Amino acid sequence: MSEPVIKCQSVYKIFGANAERMLKEANGNVDAKTFQDNGCIVGVNNASFEVSKGEMLVVMGLSGSGKSTLLRCISRLTDATGGKIFIEGQDLLNLNNKELIDLRRNKMGMVFQSFALLPHKTVLENIAFPLQIKGIKTEDSINKAMDMVKLVGLDGRENYFPRELSGGQQQRVGIARSLAVEPDIWFLDEPFSALDPLIRKEMQDEFLRLQEKLQKTIMFITHDFDEALKLADRIAIMKDGIIEQLDTPANIVLKPATEYVRKFTEEVPREKVLLIQDVMDEKTSSDIGDLKVSKDEIIENVAEKILTQEKTVAVTDSKNNVVGSINPAKIINTVFGGRKNNN
Amino acid sequence: MEILKKYPKLFQWLFLLVVFFALCFAIDVPETYKFIRGQAEFIKDPNQSAFVFLGKEVRYYAFDVFWRLPPLLGWLPIWINDSLFFLMNDWMPMEFWNEDTQEYKTRPLVLQITRNLTAFMTFLIELIREILLGGLETIVAFTSWDWIDANPWAELPGLPWTIVAAGSAILAYKLGGKGLAIYALLSMTYISIFGQWKPSMQTLSFILVAAPLSFIFGLGLGVAAFKSKRVEKALYPILLVMQTMPQYAVLVPALVLFGVGDHAAVIITMIVAVPPMILLTLLGLRAVPPEVIEAGRMSGCNNWQLMSKVLIPTARRDILIGVNQVIMVCFSMAVISAFIGAKGLGFNLLLALNQLNIGLALEAGLCISLIAILLDKMSLAWANKQVDYFGNLNFFQRNKNSLFFGVVVIAGILLAYFGSINFKDGYNYLFEVPHNKGISTAGFWNKGVDWIFDTFFVYIKAFNTWLIVDVLQPMRALYLRMPAIATLVLVVGAGYLIGGIRSALVVCGLTLFIALSPWWDRALVTTYMATFGVLVSCAIGFTVGTLCFQNKHSRNFMLNVCDIFQTFPSFVYLIPVMMLFGITDTSVLIAVIVYATIPATRYTIEGLRSVPAGLHDAATMSGVTKFQRLFKIEFPLAFPHMMLGLNQTIVFALFMVIIGAFIGTEDLGQYILKALSDKNGAGIGLTLGICVAFIGLIFDNLIRTWVDKRKKHLGID
Q1: Which of B292, B300, B310 sits opposite A105 (nearest CB)?
Q2: I need a labelling partner for B596 at 20 to 30 A (CA). Which of A169, A262, B138, B515 fits?
Q3: Which DSSP state fits A239?
Q4: Domain that holds residue B41
Q5: What ipTM was predicted for this assembly?
């Protein structure tokens, strides 16, 4: 496997006057309570993980869990108190101001919860802003920005001001702005949280469409577990600054690591989250029927077909080789069973 | 005991009052006590005691220290004065090249700096003045008198009034639309026709120099304070004192440093106008959402780009509100600066008031008010105007205002040219209506004043006598009867009960400064006048505000009235009261009441309006009557905001009391006025100003602390 794009090694962020001294004394054993008694607040507690190229890591947590702080450490909007962060092998915390600005101008893009558009600039000017800051000629930057306007489907509104747009449209501008410099790494800080449920769903679909096309390395922050499940390649669940579990959506739903994570998974409609491959039996039984389903299908889409079968159903991979099997009882068990009993 | 536990605060206050009155009764008035302690006048009297501090002799009439504290700070004004004198005349003499005599000359550094600054300001003012009115000083500045003599054509012609009037209308149209444009055109035409053109343009040129300079300095310092906590901390006390310092008092040191005239006034105006700009810049920058700043950072902005492309444009509205404040302060200073010889409307007003020519004063005052409203509305319109997209307009649409102005300039010049052919008697009315050739209504107003006096003299006099004899004199006597120690105990006790030990210490320090200065009695008189004004203003303001709040139209109407009245420089208020009540304390107090009622009314309405609509509905659904709602819900919740109004009312009242010295009061203001005409007055004037500022700050501290606590208690913002 190639070099991870983002790599964090025991990252800490502690707010307060003597945060650094306290961290040194704690010797890697940070307890939020003792820190709080000494006037320090622990934002991020020993976060270590990697994000590889083209992967989407969704960080999920409730408010105050430190997820936004973690993102700000990695974008270095705040300086981490301890630990190491590598962006494509570069040691982020050792960059000087000029190198940092360079990195942001070329490699990073960020989308904000409250859109954070500049009120005095039009849609087009907002999108062209990072390019012009970089020193690109006005004409080129405008052309490039126009491409972005088309990409997010705002053509015809490029000369509007942010105040004249709806929330969803404003966030489209925010997305276009963050993509204007063609960054490799894309940070999204609760981008859809301020939107209506209907618009949110629309934007999520739009976002998936974009990602399919662009294949960026993404860190996506959300407090919405369903959103995390829908979008993520991997999910990190945070609580009180600690990453409780970091795994694929399926593993999180099927094997919650802690009680806290389990509470989130309880109400999740599994048939909408899990793929056939997540629940199939590896070995193929002899009593197999004629029906074949792909292992990449979401259960919901094929459940009806499988449930009408009496025999076990064969599961195939993309090359149509049989890689496993699944029987209707398993489907029923996955969807309805094993919830309350487990508690 | 039960009650004591239930209302502990109440008993603490009662205890404080008991101690206060006990002290008042225990300490008798000394027999030798005279209202004036004499020191301020520098008279020698064998009955005086004296002490020497830092080589300065301070003489005073000694009393029991419980009755009046000795003026231990009496050396301060003399010391300030001497230091200023030393700075100007003896400190750091250096060789400077003198352009006129073509040789090196030894001059003290500060003197050289101030003289250069003065010359620079004078040049700026002259330049703008000559663009508006014509003249040749600017050309002389670049060439010489000899050159001017050799080239008689070399003179700036000045703009015809038609062009200025139409130009301001176009600007008003661009900023605020048709209504404002019509107002601008009408008021400029009025000013011209009524022969006030020249002084008005002098005042305007003063503002055109002072306001941009104040804006630049204010913005710069505001940004510096935003970026560095240390700068902010260093600026904070100055900002606080400048907010309550009477504008008048700042004029005095200016005299010493910069001399008499427009240039001195401009420099001193900047000192007064910069603080509000700093505050509003800071406020605006603070209000920029953190995510917008982060977005700027993530776009790769360096610090300069972040400030100039993200922060300042996003805080545009607050910063422009700051510009509005700067313009209004500059304008009011332009009027008051007449005291140190600034030309313009203020000078005419002062002259007319001195001659008791109410008619002339009214005309000048009317022009001042018209311009004040115009400047206020235009700068507010600028602040509230949102940027528009104009990339899709063609050249003509984009530049229609400039093009139109070009047409106006040509038309104005042509008109002036025809005028010069048409009017043979030496006055070109289409160029400039001379001062004494406009229509004047002064005679009419003077007759009106005479008529008022003839008709109502008896009643006014009776009212005056009653007010002075039965209300003001006793009240003043009561204030002066307070022993200094008793007052100190009362104020510090109040500070402790409201804000704990910290507040008590701050208030104690402020009070001690005044008590140890030579003007404690005067300060008491100032306070008594302000108290009287504030009490009446609050009674009127709260009542009117509450009544007007009941109806949407009356509410908006009242707020608009407050807006307009607030734009008038305080000095203008003296005109109508002098017209109606002559030269008495009553006039001053009525001016104080009128002026201070503005914030009282405004804050009452705004406070009541800030009560959340949800609560309003909840109360209505609980079946309250209108009165119950007012007293049980709206008043308690609006009360903190109304108290902030009280704070403003006190500041306004103090300002007006001080300016009232012009009519003739015997408080601190009178001494400031005296200091203005005294060449050794700088120290006295400044110390007096600080005393007044401190009176304001004592109340400011108490009220703000209380309001903050109360708001936290109620969970409002």
Answers
A1: B300
A2: B515
A3: E
A4: 2-74
A5: 0.84
